[in-house]
Design goal:
Helix content: 55-70%
Shape: rod-shaped
Radius of gyration: 61 Å
Strand order of the largest sheet: 5-12-11-6-10-7-9-8
Number of strands: 12
Structural class: alpha/beta
Largest sheet: 8 strands, mixed
Strand content: 5-15%
Number of helices: 23
Length: 673
Amino acid sequence: MSIQSGFRTSQPHLSLSGAPDQIAVTDGQVATTLKTLWSGRWLIASTTVLALGLGQLWLSEFATPLYRATTSVLLEPQDESLTDPDRVPDRARPIDDTIRRTEVEILRGRALLGTVVDDLALTADPEFNASLRAPGFGARLRALFPGQASTRPTPDQQREAAISVLSENVTIRNLAPSLVFELSAVTETPQKSALIADRLAQNYISQQIALKRHESDNAIRWLGQRLTDLQHQIETSNAELSRLSGSAATETARTVVQTRRLQKLEGDLATARLALSESQRRLQALPATAAPDARATREAQVAIDAATLRNLERQYGEIDTGLRSETETATRQKLLEQQSETDLLVYGHFLTRLKDTIAREGRQMADSRVLSAAVEPGAPYLPRPPLVLSLSAMLGAALGLMILLLRQTFRQTIRSAHELEEFTGQKVIGQLPRLPGGKGRSSIDFLHDYPDSPAAEALRGLRTNIVLEQLLLGQKVIAITSANPQEGKTTVSLGLARQMASLGKRVLVIEGDLRRRVFKEYLGVAAAQDMIGALTGSLSLAEAVHTDPRSGMDVLFGAKTHGNPADIFASEAFSRLLAEARDSYDYVIIDTPPVLCVPDTRIILQGCDRALFLVNWNITTRVQVRDGLAALHSSGRKLGGLILNRIDPRSTKEFYYTAYYSTETGRPSQRPL
């Protein structure tokens, strides 16, 4: 398999049906998510505790306690018929939502809130007047620049600002469908909250009474003006009636005489019109041949009759005009009498209204009353410590979860064998937990002192996989390498060799990292022969190796050299050494340097049967794994498998089960992981 085709991000699985495979994938995703959450539990717990601490610090040091007091007011509009003893008051008038909303807006109005500000002198309270507070950081910063210093607001501006703050701190709520309204005030002190709530209710009721009094004063003023006007109108009408009544008798006698004359003139006018008509007929009947004197006589008669008719018509007109004037005077007198009677009725009605309004003015009642006065709260309304701490805990947990998910999203390291196989396309033949004994000799001693620990069991599992493949492929010489230093190659090499030696196999471990040479430190050997003697031929392989007394494995220590270690491993002497070791031992394990650091490993691999590549759990990045395997591929040697090393035992359940079932005397092992 080529290294290019070996790396992939996902590996398809074949299944006979789609649904079970989808279920399996979903279950795997859920398991992965739960494992991720479990691995970051301490991060989530830490951010949660930190958020709780910050929340508690804010509550104790920075939060300003706010107190809420509430006054209940009942709206009960008064019937205007209360001053009328003949009417029964009606308290069951329907109140619709429009009236309720109107009353709420009146209670929220700036006019009413302004009276509270004035009565309680809230402009002198720093809570409602920002200009009285100590200047904040922004104000001090602006004061450093010329022309940026803030000017002190005028008294009117301070009052308007106080009204705005009070409007934000006051809430009005109607307990529908009832006519009860709750007036709540929130301030920094319980006394102030109760005082504002009560004062708002009192001013609301006083405003209703003042409004009714103002309406009564306007009504009294208007009714008084109307009565004055009516009185003047009645007096004027009475004077005119008196004048007209004085001449009524004289005008009546004269009217009788004139009426008789008018009747006589009507007869004279009829006679005159007949005479004129006859004279005109006779003039027209006169023949043209008649004498001039006869025509002149008849024309003179027509003129006389016409003059008589005109004189009678003039007299008739004069008398008729006089009679008409007298008739109009009588009609006007009658109208004045009717108007006077009407004015008297209206005057009486307005006088009654005026008396009723004056009587009501002294008994004005508000349309609302206080049901319950505000009580000074004993505990702050805000902030609420349980709510703040709960939100802090949730935000802290959410922050931890977000950090965990972001870290998981952008993580470039390997955290599971499945992930490693998915990425490389190679088989993982071993998963080794992190040793609690640390590094160096302590880790080797731990494996010896706790042979039933999960780490020892994991090494035995790795040994089993290698032995089974050796039976099939006959591979003896095994190189163990990694991409980076300090990934546990030496510990794995020595631990694996001990496990193989425990099977009665002849095992040789060669220290291939000549630059570090830590085998003696790991095994606690002060002085021993090394590789140089075997390479130069001054010592045989059997004389150069050191036999570990606790495991029986043979160890060939590295030697300090002034030359290039790569030249030593490329020499014929090293090839002969490996050939002799292959013939003398069942297994030869070579602890090699990191493949990305020096070329020694690729040279050593030329004489090996297989290579095992170590990946440090959650440390080695994907890029390093890719580059390391590419370097191994360039050596031309087959990769024998991957080993995921130093796994956190708490991050996977495999080592939990191993620890549970590991025993010495038939009981579950209690040794550390």
